[in-house]
Amino acid sequence: MIPPPRAIFDPTTARVERELKHARPLIGCRFDPSGRFLFVSAEDDSVQRFDLLTGAKTSLAGHDSWVRAMAFVAPAAAPAPLDSVAWQQVRAASQALVGFGAAVLPAPKPVPFTLVTADYHGKLIWWQGDSDAPKPLKTVAAHDGYARAVAVSPDGTTVASCGNDQKVKLWKAADGSAIRTLDGHESHVYNLAFHPDGTRLVSCDLKGVVKDWNLKTGKSARDLDAKVLTKYDPTFMADIGGARGMAFKYDGTAFAVCGITNVSNAFAGVGNPLAVVFDWDSGKAKSFKPKDAFQGTMWGVHFHPGGAVIGAGGGGQGRVWFWKGDDPASIHTLNVPTNARDLALSTDGARFAVAGANGTAYVYNFTGVGGPPPTPPKK
Amino acid sequence: MPEFSRSLAAVALLALAGPARPADPLHARIDKHIAAGYGANAKQVAPRSGDDEFLRRAYLDLIGTTPTVAELNEFLADSAKDKRAKLVDKLLASPGHARRMAWHFDVMLMERGADAKVPRAAWEAYLLAAFTENKPYDVLVRELLSADGADPKTRPAAKFFLDRNLEPHAVTKDIGRIFLGRNMQCAQCHDHPTIDDYKQADYYGIQAFLNRSFLFPNANAPAAVIAEKAEGDVSFMSVFDKNKKLNSTAPRMPGGKPVEEPKAEKGKEYKVAPAKDVKPVPTHSRRERLAGAVTSTENKAFARNIVNRMWAMMMGRGIVHPVDLDHGNNPPSHPELLNELAAEFVAHKYDLRWLVREIALSDSYQRSSESRPGLDDPSADRYLVAIMKPLTAEQFAYAAMQATGHTDAERAALGAKGTEQQLDALLAPRMGPFRGMLGRGVDPTADAFTATLDQTLFVKYGSAVRTLLTPRAGNLTDRLNKITNPDAVADELFAAVLSRRPTADERKDVADALKTTTDRGKTINELVWALVASAEFRFNH
Amino acid sequence: MLPCNYACNTADHATTRRAFLGAGLGATAALGADGFANPVHAAELKKAQKRVLVIFLEGGVSQLETWDPKPNTDTGGPFKSIATSVPGTRVCELLPLAAKQMHRIALVRSLNSQTDDHGVGHNVMLTGRKMEPGIVYPHLGAVAARLLNSNANALPGHIRIVPKGGSGFNGADATFLGPKFASVGLGDGKPPADLFRPANLTPTEDEQRDAFRKRLDERFAKSRKSAATDAYTESFTQAERVVKQAEVFDISKEPEKVADKYGRHDFGRHMLLARRLLEAGVTYVKVSHSNYDTHHENFDFHIEQLAEFDKPFSALLDDLADRGMLDSTLVVVMSEMGRTPKINDRYGRDHWGRAWSVALAGAGIKGGAVVGKTNATGTAVTGREVWTGHLFHTYLQAVGLDSTKNFYPNERPVPIADPKTAAISEVLA
Q: In this structure, which topology does domain C31-191+255-427 adopt according to CATH?
């Protein structure tokens, strides 16, 4: 029995829907716009595509280094996602009817989309993300050093990337040709995100400087302060920080960056996860913290269409936190058995996934069924 | 009973003591032993020290600082025959003596290691109180070796163990060195290769008193206390033994009998049984036997070590020298004297003040440090000439503050009601840098004096010395600035810094310097520095 | 503290009585003519003054992100390897400038230092021995200062430049060689306190007051003289000689262009200071770069730290070569350990002493040599395993010393370097 959809978003209904395994530790994860696939990247330089409908796993080979950034160029309006759980049951039922060896119910064709990935050698690769065996379509040497993040403009025309060369770069989504370089950051650029109206791009660097780029002029309209996510550790004499995750609210009224704060020992990762949510108009920042004391980094943050902020991260173990409204303390916490190194949220908000340091991607839904019930976080 | 008969009774008692007739006082016997050792060098024995020389030496040795100009003048003017004895008694009775002994025992016991579990202030207060009441040495050592740190009142005494983290080899080695005069470090791994007397079994005999003890809750806890288990034995194997035979020993002092250990009934080994987060208390404690075994009169090394160390403090060299290498191949320079000192010390109930007094009153102590012409290479162990002792960091700090009149100025500021304790508190912050610099890196047992570059630069350019030279009401540069007669300047200068009158040459030097100067204040400052930086000031001569 | 028997006349030759009596080896032992049997050999002294520079990457640098990269393997991390000036030798991309110096550098990629502990690692790397009870071995700096120091030089022979803290003398690293060879530490490259004449004391005043002190000391010495009092008065003469060279500690005397080459950051300044000190005749300088103890975000932190290391390191090799000093200066890049090939869940690498690398250059070193191998993922040495003792022999032999000789503290022979090991001849020129 599938329960009817709930009217109000309730994080306590989050359950592990499935665990997708890979042989090497995962780094990043993203749902394609239709929500049919989960892409994960791993320490073996590969990108893996899991078909949530069929369970098929496809390896995308082409990078020579680690990939953390994945973004999608898709038709403006993505079709409503399939209910993969329901479909699995239908397929199972059909198999049961006709018996093993009989032709199984063929999976529907996925909606076409382009995937852009970026690696730690500064390389961007374009892929046909929905093809049976995706191959690199286009490769661009985009940055000197790490390319840490990519994003695609809401109209699907522009790809933005950023990296350790302190640059933000814009590319034509169609052919990968360079449009413009946005200069201004003075340290490694860790993340970026397009405003939903497509006129602005925000980027955040290691030192917690957030730049709000006017895409018409190519100039930074303002600097916002996320320095709470950065620190020079005088003991180890090194900088720690930056936006490990970054996301806009669907209506454009806010955006979030996340990472680590209160660092007392950079080299052991002793600090607390934190999301900083900026009000778009005023530029004022609010800090969202885990309710319980937890040490580690917040690696991903998203705005759920239901009105909550979701963060994921870890340090030793993993956690997923939920915040609602203005309450700076999380209202709900899920334990993840491994450091959660990235957080993906499907477009419709029905699912989210974390990339595990143990090589497993954990996919959650909000049905309140399936998988073990969430254990309360340890004190 | 009338006065008369009471003294008669005293005489009668003494007479009854038989063979131990009221002998000469110990200081006279010291001189007999030392004189017997002069041998062919008798003619080269230095004369008795001058009054100024004696005064400075006694002040530094007994109260750790130099005399004021007034004290110097008063002593030199005193014509009483027994003025030296009176001075010694006055100094020993003053609070400065306890301070000096506390400094000395701090370095002797802790050897300038970093303070860890027992804060410095509490430790110094403990030592100061002990020497103020002249606590008998055996009592003091029993406190040091029996405190477990649990009672806040006695915790400072546990510093010897706690600040060594109760590390088995460190405490075994240091009990041997510091309380028994035996550096058995090499015996940790094998019988000592060059010292027949130091056996591996002796080393582990000491360790066996402590091998069941440990720091509770753990060695890293700042408030850790000493706890003990009821079981466990030491085992050791010589690294030279090809058969790799494993040996063990019961707790015992070197050369002594093993202590008898009552066998605890099975199941009753503990008063408080070990459990998680519980400090166990064994029925029979090995560690509690340690203090008694070390200080027992049967353990001859105990008294022998401390009288030798006190002798070395006063005389600049141990009868056994170095003081922690007492063994057959390194015989004492004056074995009978050492035996007599030890026996008398025990008979006088381990009274350190009495012992120091007797040494100070001896002619041997009061010899001049000036060699007679022709005696270029006096053999130090004959005590023909007083040995020059480098000032300790604390002595140097106090002497420098006294010499430059800083102490005078502070005392004046305190007024007539000021106590010595208040004065020490005022001087303490200035002593810190001297301690840090001149006490650092110094192996307290090394017999070679070293002057490292940084220590010399500290005296040469360092602000700790420099700021003492800035004129301030009542200090030396201030006083000298107000004196117009060059001879009077020289007199005050030499009296204040070097505790003596200047020679004619020195008066002339001072006069010449003052005559040619364009900036009198600066020249006076230079003169004071030169005297403070001189070898004469650096040493207790 | 008891004065020395004056029979030995000068402090320098103050062979202590303790030395004959078998005290613990921790005690200071003078090493006179009968100490180090005919020390260092006259022939060796005649050679050009040799110097040693140790660049110590504190915390444990990752061998995989430096000298022994394993790109595209399970342990390799995200970085690629790059070609160097030596065909066939590749290093991590984080060392682009060092890569161009590889013809001057010899790599030892097969070090097993047998410890994963910071303190122990630091000790074994600098003493070339396992730690043993009953004896504390002197550090390389003290050994070099003892065996290479030219008497003509008043400057301390053993200097450590550390990233932070105060400056001071008397490091506890000379042990039985005595305090003369103990290190002088320069925190953040600052000169030791009291090295410079105070502003309100003119040179003339300084000379006048010192002349007065000398007169007092001479008079005092006429009837009261000992090795100890001599040592004290002599120390003022030595201090004066060092004070006269105090400028050596001041890198603002360097041209702007040179300072730019080394990089305008702390480590750049410290490396430039090291070069000045070596040039002025200091025998041994150790520069520490902090920090590499990257249990978390190993890759991000190695980007930051190695960028800071690469430029001054390369500039210094060029500078030494330009000044004709590279042939007489041994340069060693070491750490207290390497880092685990396994990448942990926080992108960190942990402590690892089993299979890692050290780089050497300059005096006595065969540039371009690569000795030893680790397996494909760097988890084990597969060829020519060496220990810290092998390296210690190698350092000393590279500067022309016979590392198989003994010191004689307390009249007991103590081999200068671990006799169970020998120099790595493949890296010696």
A: Alkaline Phosphatase, subunit A (3.40.720)
